[in-house]
Write a structure and sequence with these properties.
single chain; mainly alpha; Hypothetical protein af1432; 4-stranded antiparallel sheet; 15 helices; globular
């Protein structure tokens, strides 16, 4: 039985299966481990970790407190959405998701079957996303935060695309550049489509070799996309470099600072932001405020100037106004 606990609750003998840590690479699942001694437990308590998931069948429990299954979290999140947005706003956001779904399903299926990805269906999907982000960006981003295991890749791709569209508009990019960045976000993880399902869905600990294989997805995605003559260079750049860090500790090449384009830096921010704010099984979704605080504390990971501007872009458009006030014409708090 799995249970989510806070960092200060850890003790010797617990079997940890997952952690929430802003410095952890979301592309590489946590390798399960047993807290064997007090030194290991103290290290966790002193870390950046927000919470952990323990398996009380394979290790000790905290002694009290109920497990927190996915269904309960989803119910809470859906209730929260109803309080934040009107039914019309939620309906319109869901419509956008359903309109893009067949386009992405076809694109992803072609990648799996033939190893090819074309620009045109991705661009059509971004057209729908960009239109939705003009009217009510917060509703679309809010709904994509509710990710089930089966829909994670689809909704994460859509959310990163939407965030990049929104941020590019805030930065006053022209609409052609906005569209290309949206496609870049949509296709940034396309390399995962050619990886074995058994590897991506493996529940147990990953071997070093399996970890290394997962980290090849940017290169494999780049190779796949570069076969298309009409694929924009920005899309290729984002696919290949979205896991790089400004301090040179990212992958696949360990590039740093001026070696990274603005597009790759923007993608890195949007990718991590969506991953950290998404609800998943036995994982509390971080609030936007918590996420941005932890991203700002993550020295060397992101472009600090762009991250500050990203924060401003969310504050400018995503500040909550109760649905009843919006119906009465109230404006968002800036």
């Amino acid at each position: 039985m799995l249970k989510r606990i806070k960092r200060h609750q850890v003790r010797v003998g617990m079997f940890v299966t997952d952690i929430e840590d802003p410095l952890r690479d979301e592309a590489a699942p946590v390798r399960s481990f047993l807290l064997k001694d007090e030194a290991a437990a103290a290290k966790v308590r002193a870390s950046n970790i927000i919470s952990l998931v323990i398996d009380i069948r394979r290790g000790v429990d905290v002694g009290s407190g109920p497990a927190q299954p996915e269904a309960r979290q989803s119910e809470t999140s859906l209730s929260s959405l109803s309080r934040a947005f009107t039914q019309t706003e939620i309906k319109e956001a869901l419509q956008t998701i359903e309109q893009t779904r067949p386009l992405l399903d076809t694109l992803f299926a072609n990648v799996r079957l033939s190893g090819t990805a074309t620009f045109e269906p991705a661009d059509r999907a971004v057209e729908q996303i960009a239109k939705s982000m003009e009217s009510n960006p917060a509703a679309l981003i809010g709904i994509t935060r509710l990710k089930t295991k089966d829909e994670y890749t689809f909704l994460h791709s859509l959310a990163v695309s939407a965030l990049m569209v929104h941020f590019a508009r805030f930065l006053k990019f022209d609409e052609q550049a906005v569209r290309i960045l949206g496609v870049s976000g949509l296709l940034h993880d396309i390399g995962k489509m050619v990886m074995p399902d058994a590897l991506l869905s493996k529940k147990g600990a990953l071997t070093d070799e399996e970890m290394a294989q997962i980290r090849t997805h940017p290169v494999r995605g780049y190779e796949l996309l570069s076969r298309q003559a009409d694929m924009p260079q920005t899309v290729l750049d984002v696919c290949l470099h979205h896991h790089e860090r400004v301090d040179g500790k990212g992958y696949p090449f360990g590039l740093s600072d001026k070696q990274l384009s603005p597009s790759a830096r923007i993608a890195a921010i949007c990718d991590v932001y969506d991953a950290m704010t998404s609800a998943r099984p036995y994982k509390r979704a971080w609030t936007p405020a918590e996420t941005l605080r932890m991203m700002l504390k993550s020295e060397g990971h992101f472009d600090r100037h762009l991250l500050t501007q990203f924060n401003a872009s969310l504050r400018a458009s995503f500040s909550p106004v109760p649905p009843k006030d919006r119906r009465n014409g109230a404006r968002a708090v800036q």
